[in-house]
């Protein structure tokens, strides 16, 4: 299945939006909204998309949008879906869009609650690995070795990134998947699949952010591709919190260094730090490969 | 204070530097516009002075960690803006009840809700007073300049320690983001009140005879800290007599030390016919209007600027109302502190609000025009 087959033909993203040049988040929303079709409702929490979705008098998305307070994305999504159902509308897809802060940090409690209740909507976390909208402050999705503006001196993250997919799998939700913009077919296909599933569906999208990551705006796709090819961000899906399936296997594992070297946020990493990162990538990849049908996740 | 060095500083940075000068060595918070520079500056500076900076997972965690650190013996501060301030309210009430010193900075932005994150407003005056539930006392300072921010932050830290009471520094986007000259005393020249290390022999954590110091956990005294009503030992009590006495004690502290907590300043005519009462960044416009009205036109006008807005400087306003015919209250909201001014004017002077709520500052001309209409 490729983009042509999954495409609903409905373009709900207008051009001329206010995303930064090379924004991966704008691209991701364009891909998945085309896959989901025009009958969608967006619940957007505080994130870059609060800005992208429309500075007055313009709007970017041709669908109903509900911007909600920061900690409440998944709760508001729950209410919207139940409300629609109560009124007899069972077809509209409710999509909750949150950044990594609104998913990994302040939004985690609401997310966990909604996943546990198996609310019937799609939660999309577009993860650019820091609070980028406000000028790059640390989130718990910020990777090891990365610089941000709120890390105590020497301004380098010492802890690893929170593994949100393992957390979501532990909730036993019907569907959870990773995707990224360099693999639009894979991304769209997963959304089409998710649309056909009832219950809580979670997406973890890795979104390169050129200004925040300190990369050129034409490097978005390359960074996204390298993250997958180096096995830093594997593409897979988990059914019912149990069955893990890789949707793309890199023909040859790319060295992590190439990915890191493109970004100023990793500048000044020592040799041993790069090795430590490489080690954790290798370990996680091996662990993922060992998952089989019916095996307990991770 | 003779040796001073002038420094060009941003308001938010002045708040962070003031806190460090006053001995704050713990910051826990969550980034939110327009207060984020406080967190960013603290992240850089605190490790240099042996302090701790933690970025928390959300706003509630920010204030909660600050409360924990304070009980552990640290001078602790957190900073936020409107939406985050709302989230912190339950914990602020807890700190009031458990008498845990801490400073909460709210760099106000245009609300309600997300509002305009980058636009100034003074809409949180009543939330700062009554945001947390229950009948509680609160201290709120509102600086009008970068200079005042530096010194009021120091005062906030010291008074919160002395009174064992959370103090709120209610800044606004204008003061937070402007850059101005600040005169900073040489290190060690600034009087920073240090909590006494000595524990009185008959120490009780919630003694109602005077101010019982907060003895940090780990210093040998075992005691109970709770948000429930409690007796002088800290243990929960539902006894009506204990409950009413506790609440009176909380309020009584601020009554007793009102003179230390209340900061106001007056400029203008000695016998004014018209006065302006305002606070925060609006003081700046009022000052410019007064200059034109008083120094250029010799109108009998004066400006009472409030650095302390809660507890409300009732005596000062009452005295002013005896003198003047009209009190103008410019505020960047739909009228919040004007109600208090009216209350304490007791009908002696006409109280006229001047409100602006479009995310822009009240201009000196707006105030001057109002004055001109009065004198015309």
Classify the secondary structure makeup of chain B into a structural class.
Answer: alpha/beta
Radius of gyration of chain B, CA atoms, in whole angstroms: 21 Å
Fraction in beta strands of chain A: 5-15%
User: Fraction of residues of chain A in helices?
Assistant: 25-40%
- CATH hierarchy class name of chain A: Alpha Beta
CATH class of the largest domain in chain B: Alpha Beta
What name goes with the CATH superfamily of the largest domain in chain B?
A: Thiamin diphosphate (ThDP)-binding fold, Pyr/PP domains
Average pLDDT of chain A: 92
**What is the fold named in CATH at topology level of the largest domain in chain B?**
Rossmann fold
| Largest sheet, spatial ordering of strands of chain A | 2-1-3-4-6-5-7-8
Strand percentage of chain B: 15-25%
How many alpha or pi helices of chain A?
Answer: 12
- The main sheet of chain B orders its strands as 3-2-4-5-7-6-12
Indicate the CATH architecture of chain A: 3-Layer(aba) Sandwich
Principal-axis shape of chain A:
globular
Query: Could you describe the largest sheet of chain A, including whether it forms a barrel?
Result: 8 strands, mixed
Helix and strand sequence of chain A: HHEHEHEHHEHEHEHHEEHH
Return the structural class of chain A. Answer: alpha/beta
